């Protein structure tokens, strides 16, 4: 293995171990300060190694987006997993039953029909733990508050479901235009979960888990009395979308892409990192505070203006001091998408490579 990051071939996915540790310690400290649990979403990093780091630093379990991610993590020995996605197909329910032999699973319930399908699939099995997902403004999955009583009443009659939690995802916080707006979204996120929990408790359900926390909102939602858990994912790495929102700075961004200059023209410079290395993501609704397709570290006058599959085309003001084959680090706009584009992390500390970690759940979408 090479020692210096600048001896690596490119493109390469770099992970600053010091910044990763600092970010995880910060999340853990916020959870401890507010006496709540921390269940990080691993779709950001898709790494068994990082998931186990999070557990070692106090996480109560993990959150995954897809069943296939849960299978990867359970097979590594991780035991407490929330699948924050509605599962209803017969193929997936069969796999889910098999996976309950390896780990303690919790799944999202999003509709009456899905609840009934899950209940039928677990006939004769140990009841599966379910949490009701509520819509707090993202308008994606999740039941509206007006539907909670209806679905909770149905669940009460389904003996193969063990219902003990309410959760939401305030993903619309990524479109916020100020910290004040993010705080308002966090307060509403918590309010909706607590209101839904109260409605369910009035029906006789015991709701012990009240879970919130997108990366922009988790610091604020964690302070709301009654909330029991936060689930930030991106906060392990951070990225330029988070910087643009004002929730972090570039000095906390742990993930970068190492890129080489492959061509220099009169009015542009071309890197070997196109959409297959950086993605075309510019944040929710094309967040106006996100400029270009990533930030080139130590080169503030260079803007990654457009990406094709293999080329990152940048403009520059006045002139650039970069030469052919020079290497730069680029902070991606959306770290979660970029991690899924690579096979491995080159883990470094103070500019020296100390390890490589696999992106174990890369491409696991089923």
From TrEMBL:
Sequence ranges assigned to domain D-serine dehydratase-like in this UniProt record: 254-349
InterPro entries in UniProt: Ala_racemase_N, D-amino_acid_metab_enzyme, D-ser_dehydrat-like_dom, D-ser_dehydrat-like_sf, PLP-binding_barrel
Keywords: Lyase
One of the Pfam families matching this protein, by short name: D-ser_dehydrat
GO biological process: D-serine catabolic process
Family annotation (Gene3D superfamilies): Alanine racemase (3.20.20.10), D-serine dehydratase-like domain (2.40.37.20)
GO molecular function annotation: D-serine ammonia-lyase activity
Family: Belongs to the DSD1 family.
Name this protein carries in UniProt: D-TA family PLP-dependent enzyme
């Amino acid at each position: 293995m090479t020692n210096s990051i600048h001896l690596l071939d490119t493109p390469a996915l770099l992970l600053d171990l010091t910044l990763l540790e600092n970010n995880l310690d910060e999340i853990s400290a916020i959870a401890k300060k507010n006496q709540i649990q921390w269940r990080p979403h691993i779709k950001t990093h898709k790494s068994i190694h990082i998931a186990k780091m999070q557990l070692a630093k106090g996480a109560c379990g993990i959150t995954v987006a897809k069943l296939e991610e849960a299978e990867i993590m359970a097979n590594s020995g991780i035991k407490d997993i929330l699948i924050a996605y509605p599962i209803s197909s017969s193929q997936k329910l069969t796999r889910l039953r098999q996976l309950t032999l390896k780990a303690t699973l919790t799944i999202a319930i999003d509709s009456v029909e899905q609840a009934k399908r899950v209940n039928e699939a677990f006939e004769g099995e140990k009841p599966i733990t379910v949490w009701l997902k509520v819509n707090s403004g993202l308008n994606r999955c999740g039941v509206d508050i007006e539907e909670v009583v209806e679905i909770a009443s149905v669940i009460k009659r389904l003996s193969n479901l063990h219902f003990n939690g309410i959760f939401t995802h305030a993903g619309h916080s990524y479109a916020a235009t100020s910290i004040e707006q993010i705080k308002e979204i966090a307060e509403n996120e918590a309010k909706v979960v607590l209101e839904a929990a109260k409605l369910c408790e009035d029906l006789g359900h015991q709701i012990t888990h009240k879970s919130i926390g997108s990366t922009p909102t988790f610091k604020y939602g964690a302070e709301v009395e009654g909330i029991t858990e936060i689930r930030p994912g991106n906060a392990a790495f951070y990225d330029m979308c988070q910087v643009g929102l004002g929730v972090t700075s570039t000095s906390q961004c742990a993930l970068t892409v190492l890129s080489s200059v492959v061509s220099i023209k009169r009015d542009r410079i071309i890197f070997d990192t196109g959409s297959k290395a950086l993605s075309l993501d510019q944040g929710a609704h094309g967040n106006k505070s996100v400029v270009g397709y990533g930030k080139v570290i130590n080169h503030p006058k260079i803007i990654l203006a457009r990406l094709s599959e293999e080329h990152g085309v940048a403009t520059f003001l006045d002139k650039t001091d970069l030469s052919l084959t020079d290497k730069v680090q680029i902070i991606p706009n959306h770290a979660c998408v970029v991690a899924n584009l690579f096979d491995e992390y080159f883990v470094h500390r103070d500019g020296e490579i100390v390890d490589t970690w696999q992106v174990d759940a890369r491409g696991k979408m089923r």
